[in-house]
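Deadline looming. Please check this record:
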Amino acid sequence: MTSQPPERAPALLAIVRIIAVLGMSFAIASGIFLLLWGKIALGVLVVLIAVPFFFLMRYMEKNALQEH
């Protein structure tokens, strides 16, 4: 009984993952710096900007799995 190797993810998924991780990390880091600087409302807003990047990554991963 032979097993087939797992299929590779499309290149677009890798690019979206990289952009999403960079966007999330930049937004969270900037938000933390703003919170430490005392800009509470702006810091929370900037941290919340990371949420769409997360959902974009999850959406692309689900679509890539459905295509294969």
In short: The chain has one domain: 11-67. The CA atoms of residues 11 and 33 lie 33 Å apart.
